[in-house]
Specification:
Blueprint (H helix, E strand, L loop, with lengths): L14 E6 L5 E7 L2 E7 L1 H14 L4 H8 L5
Antiparallel strand pairs: 1-2, 2-3
Length: 73
């Protein structure tokens, strides 16, 4: 199956959250105003997304993880 869904969240800060379902699945949600995007990801897929974002934003993944945990690199 293939699908492309475009939701523009570029109009300011989007809220993000990661939830774990009872089945062990990982759900990434992004919301802004009335727009909400929810994607179920495997843990390896979420880790790959984290590494890609860290690379594209110029932040080493370890530093990004420490920042997410409220630590200083």
């Amino acid at each position: 199956m293939s699908a492309r869904i475009v939701v523009n969240l570029a109009q300011g800060l989007a809220q993000s959250a990661i939830d774990r379902g009872p089945d062990g699945g990982t759900w990434l949600s992004l919301s802004q105003g009335g727009e909400v995007v929810i994607v179920k990801l495997s843990t390896p897929s979420l880790e790959a997304l984290h590494a890609t974002l860290a690379k594209e934003l110029g932040t080493p993944a370890a530093d990004a993880t420490a920042a997410d945990a409220g630590e200083r690199p």
